[in-house]
Amino acid sequence: MKFIATISVDLDESPMGLRSRLGDEIAGRPVLRRTVERVLRADRIDSVHILSPVSQSARVKALVDGLDVRLETHAEGKPGYAKLVRAGRVWGMDGWRGGIGTVCVFDEDMDVPLVDALVRRESADAAISIAAGGCLVDSALIDAMIVHHEAHGGALTFVQAPPGLGVVILGSGLLPELASSGQPPGLLLAYRPDQPGADLTGKEACFRPPASVVEAGGRLICDSRRAFERVEALLADGAETWNAERIARWLLERGANHVEAVPEEIEIELTTDDPSDGGSLLHPRVSAGAGRGPISLDVVRSVIDSIDGYDDVRIVLGGFGEPCLHPRFAEICGMLRNSAVAAIAVRTDGTVGDPAVEDALFETPIDAVEVTLDAVTAETYRLVHGSDRFDEVVARFDRWIDRRMSGSNVLPLLVPSFVKASETLHELESFFDTWMRRLGMVLVTGYSHRAGQLERRAVAQTAPPRRSVCRRTLSRTVVLADGGVTTCDQDPAGQQVLGSARESALLELWQSKSIGAIRSGEWSTMPLCPSCDEWHRP
Q1: Closest among 300, 212, 316, 307 to 260, alpha carbons compared
Q2: DSSP conformational letter for 294
């Protein structure tokens, strides 16, 4: 069989919409050149093809000069699904699969029509798609996947591995089907309510590497400052000659206690005001008389300033109130959009009918809007939210969907969410299938009693029997509406506030002694940590 490798290159913008770093030097050599050199070590690849826009061909050629590759030029432009992939994947960049929707890392820079045309021209049996910024891709893993692909005779071979470490192989028979349907390969791995089937991770299409490779996380595609620094650290430790298993072990060892220099995700509470009639059983609110906010624009500006220089930080406007009730909601959305923030989400109950709020969601635009429905019937909605506004909220959500579709817009992604609890479990399957058919995206989360502050309504206990370092404190933080920065999203009353963003820089609080103690396992004296069940969740 004939296998060709394809590497899609853009020297101006990465597939995730960030500044391209393919021409930047890392440990003395350009990122793209390092990637190609690693790929050329594979024995089973017949040829390596660089796909470049015509306008960049001279620059690309200079980066790979002297290497045994073929430069293929094409007209400017991205496949139709590129914006959707980008919008969904930004929320799960550290895993091969994850984020919003059913996309995966193999979709990020995969231009199916171009690859299909190249495979036909070369009379190849399959194409191996490789991330241009994946300069630690393992040639031995590529060869093993090719052998596996030949053995099982399938149309698709993929691997569960940290982004940039693995590849995907697409057969010549599958590519035309994907090209004609306008779909990226990740949709082959998606659950379809009308055609249910086993996850392909349990089928022959999934190549099984060592367990450490499957378990490791951390983006190794050099397309953001954080990922670039991670790869830089690996190379400094000797990863130039390491295989996938050794790199994965490094990630696992580091991930156990590594604190990000800047949080990956920051949740900002704009207000604790709540429009619900009777309060929600599933979403904690601040008790009457103990409200916070509305948050000042100065606090929001200080958060923006604190993450300057990092281009993959995500902001969630949520907290323990309804963010859309902030009197300057639209202005805050605009401030965030005009900053270096990678993506913005709004978590709302959908009860605010202000046209100015709707315009802010669509015209900013916000990247993702989560609507906390939690039910498929008015009866269950009334039970868990204490309100008879189910029909009103669904009608508003329907109008938002129509508005997005009528404008042929990708953003905002509209995500109905569902908290799995004893009161809602009977509607989970119907909720999931209904919205997957309609939108292709649903968010299902487990119920949290917020470290014993709420009644226990969880369907099952999921925390491991042995406690370890709280993963949430390693990469996420919460800014409350009064400016207080707390340890995590389990703290609606602000009992574990580290300090105020009004008085201290966010990153000073992020590295403070108090949260450092939690990260090192000294959590027993904290008000909430001893009773928390959420420490194992990322």
Answers
A1: 307
A2: P
Which DSSP category does 446 fall into? E
Contact present, 169 and 149 (Cβ < 8 Å): yes
- Of 75, 68, 61, nearest to 36 by C-alpha is 68
Encode pLDDT of 354-398 as tens digits: 999 999 999 999 999 999 999 999 999 999 999 999 999 999 999
Cα–Cα dist 337/481, whole Å? 20
Band the pLDDT of 525: cuts 50, 70, 90: confident
Angle at 251 between CA 342 and CA 508, to 5 degrees: 50
pLDDT band at 195 (very low <50, low <70, confident <90, very high): confident
Tell me the two tokens of residue 274. Answer: 């709540």
Confidence check: pLDDT of 277 > 70: no
The residues, any chain, with a CB within 8 Å of residue 71's CB and separated by 6 or more, are 49, 50, 52, 57, 60, 61, 64
Please check whether residue 151 is in contact with residue 1, taking contact to mean a CB–CB distance below 8 angstroms.
no
Please return the burial class of 352, using the count of CB atoms within 10 Å of its CB with bins 0-12, 13-18 and 19+.
Answer: middle
> Which DSSP state fits 75?
-
Given the structure tokens 């027993």, which residue do they identify? 524
Let me know the angle formed at the C-alpha of 21 by 61 and 188, rounded to the nearest 5 degrees.
Answer: 90
Query: Phi/psi at 207 (nearest 5 deg)?
Result: -75, 135
Longest dimension (CA), the chain: 72
Cα–Cα dist 439/383, whole Å: 26
Cα–Cα distance measured from residue 517 to residue 389, given in angstroms and rounded to the nearest whole number: 44
Report how many helices (DSSP H) and strands (DSSP E) the chain contains, helices first: 18, 18
- How do residues 68-120 score in pLDDT, each as one tens digit? 999 999 998 889 899 999 999 999 999 999 999 889 999 999 999 999 999 99
C-alpha to C-alpha distances, 140 to 83, 147, 214, 398, nearest whole angstrom:
32, 11, 16, 49
What is the number of residues in the chain? 538
Which tens digit of pLDDT belongs to each residue from 293-332? 899 999 999 999 999 889 999 999 999 999 999 999 999 9
Alpha carbon distances (Å) from 58 to 6, 55, 87, 118, 130: 18, 8, 30, 20, 21
3 state DSSP class of 76: coil
Only one residue has tokens 């990637």, namely 35
Q: What is the 3-state secondary structure (H, E, C) of 181-223?
A: HCCCHHHHHCCCCCCCCCCHHHCCCEECCCHHHHHCCCCCCCC
Q: Which long-range contacts (CB under 8 A, 24 or more apart) does 248-252 make?
A: 248/161, 248/162, 248/165, 248/210, 248/212, 248/213, 248/215, 248/216, 249/212, 249/216, 251/162, 251/216, 251/217, 251/218, 252/212, 252/215, 252/216
